[in-house]
Amino acid sequence: MAIAASAAGCEKCGGGGAGPLPDAARPAPSTSEAGAPPPEAGAKGDGEGKGGGDPNSDKLHGVRKFHGIDVPVYVDGKQVAALRWGEVPPIPLVPHSEDPLKNPLYYRLYDYVVALGLQPKSIKAVHMRDFRLSIASVEANELVQRKDILVIGFMGGKTGIARMMWPIDGLKNEHRIDEIAAMQIYVNKPVPPFKEGMTCYWKNDKCSAEMPYVEGEMAKGTRVYVDGPMIGYVKRRALGDATIVGRTGDGEYKYSLAKMMGGLGDDAADAKFVELIAGDNVIARLDAATWKAKQGELVFTLPKHGHGKIKLTIPVAAQAPTDAGALKDEALTITAVRVYKKTTPTKRELTPIGDVDPASFDESGLEDEE
Q1: Which end of the chain is more exposed for a tag (fewer CB within 10 A), N or C?
Q2: How far is CA 267 from CA 23, 224, 260, 274, 339, in A?
Q3: How many domains would you assign to the chain?
């Protein structure tokens, strides 16, 4: 399966230090940026993935700025998550060793892997591909021995593309990437070799955007997580008649959120909490009592060209308070739903619906690139 990427070659990058800090952690604009330079905006892939260049470049505007932010995470070819700030499981935030402000804006790769339900001793390697198609990797023993320094950050601190933020000196693969375009965790499948002299997957005499063993399409629709990993995502053609609860005045089908989740294997009947996420913002957090009382009101539509992202009506009882006046039931695009059964949500503040930037999840302007 081809996934979003742009290619400029598989050039070796130097620099043994950790990657550049996100803007939110920089003490001054003059802070130097180590690691690989970003690919040129609009650079195209090798035909097996789609372009996107640097998704956070100042030259890119609106929705374009967020293209590529939903970094797919695979285990032996099966997508189990999207690596973006808003969808990170409930794991501790840690400071970066090179951040003078000691902002807790980073996650340990070790904690992230464990939160996906994997035992570190069962993992063979973790590979991360960038937009230039080159691969950084961490071996199983390195994941454990260096767990305190193998940290992931995000371009904008609490938003933006995921970035590799650790030093590469002494690793088996001393190749640095900056932005992470895709991640693959090898557990049972053989770890594929790199092309000799080229730190990339090699196919048809060139570096390939394909992640090995991946079949099917990337999860673009609203993703549903239970505790750690994703249990599925919304696809219009996969929604059964049992999920339909009516029609809008314009004739659009209305679907039940709980029934949709049940179709994926878990209707959250015994959930301790349910979070509704829009981009990188948690816009609602329902405890067990509220979920049971309000789930009948949680209905959604599927806008055309929305790539399976649901537009959900959020009841007032589930919304964050605001100073802008009285709240009302309001519909918003939801990119992820996280169900907590054995885990507890991290202490993240809810974002008022009016403060959510729709560009962070609306890709309707990018349809020509699909």
Answers
A1: C
A2: 39, 10, 8, 11, 9
A3: 2
Contact by Cβ (8 Å): 234, 302: yes
Is the pTM for the entire model greater than 0.85? no
Buried b (16+ CB within 10 A) or exposed e, 232-264: bbbeeeebeeebeeeeeeeeebebbbbbbbbbb
d(C-alpha 185, C-alpha 162), whole Å? 16
366 phi and psi, to 5 degrees? -115, 15
In-domain check, residue 11: no
On whether both 55 and 121 belong to a single domain, the answer is: yes
Phi then psi for residue 313, to 5 deg, are: -80, 120
Q: How far is residue 143's CA from residue 249's CA, in Å, rounded to a whole number?
A: 54
Distance between CA 93 and CA 104 in Å, rounded?
A: 5
**Read out DSSP for 194-229?**
PPTTS-B-EETTEE--PPTT--S----S-EEEESSS
Say how far residue 344 (Cα) sits from the centre of its chain.
20
Q: Contact, 124 vs 80, CB < 8 A?
A: no
Among candidate residues 207, 231, 255, the one where a domain is terminated = 207
- pLDDT computed for residue 17 by the predictor: 57
Domain annotation covers residue 46: yes
The pLDDT assigned to 215 comes to 87
Question: How, if at all, do strands 71-75 and 182-186 pair?
Answer: parallel
Q: Per the domain annotation, does 13 fall within a domain? A: no
In a domain, 74, yes or no: yes
| The pLDDT of residue 219 | 93
The pLDDT assigned to 363 comes to 54
Which amino acid, 246? G
What is the DSSP annotation of 358-370? Answer: GGGT--GGGGGG-
Q: Residue 354: which region, alpha, beta or left (left: phi > 0; alpha: psi -120 to 50)?
A: alpha
Residues 67 and 199 occupy one common structural domain = yes
Which residues of the chain have a pLDDT value below 50? Answer: 1-15, 26-64, 364-370
Q: What is the pLDDT of residue 47?
A: 33
**Using CA atoms, how far apart are residues 49 and 243, in angstroms rounded to an integer?**
33
Contact by Cβ (8 Å): 162, 179 = yes
